[in-house]
């Protein structure tokens, strides 16, 4: 991750792992969790912006150095539970596990150039853990389509189904973001914390009920023959054996 920046109460955390397109590796998950913990303890932080370098917000789980399922679940829960609002600022592509980060954030805005896809089924796994923040917040019929097909869709559709809060035209994400940050700066810190608690109660219930089971499902699927074939095919830039 890049060094955090701070301006008028807003701390920006930047995913900066260009060699793997900001994929969620074990080290990156650990670094982000540590940075969020520091933000949570800092009374000077009114809100957190989570953004990225390069043309990809996150390519999903790092297939070469993936985080433990419990660590990823803990990170998503940490974002949801943080007493400061977390805002995702997206100017590039988001795939698989990266969409879990968007789902965990309180507000998510993206440029018109961003693209999104739940690609898990195409590499032999399922969007298990990221469903914890996504299922309570995103349109279920749309999730059924995009979970099952792995299709790519754009920011207008992402906003329509509830994955994004808003999408900008072309690359004007900061124009969309400006009034959001202004509003957060005008809000009382304790009121923000209590309001976020109201908004996230149902999401945290999903974590309490299902995190353990979904972590076990994720572990089982990543160890499966389908996953080995799918991930090998992905790394070799070919279709997996099951493609018709």
From TrEMBL:
CDD domains linked: crotonase-like
Matching Gene3D superfamilies: 2-enoyl-CoA Hydratase, Chain A, domain 1, Lyase 2-enoyl-coa Hydratase, Chain A, domain 2
Domain of life of the source: Bacteria
SUPFAM superfamilies in UniProt: ClpP/crotonase
Gene Ontology molecular function terms on file: catalytic activity
Pfam families, sorted: ECH_1
Family: Belongs to the enoyl-CoA hydratase/isomerase family.
The protein, known as: Enoyl-CoA hydratase
Organism per entry: Streptomyces resistomycificus
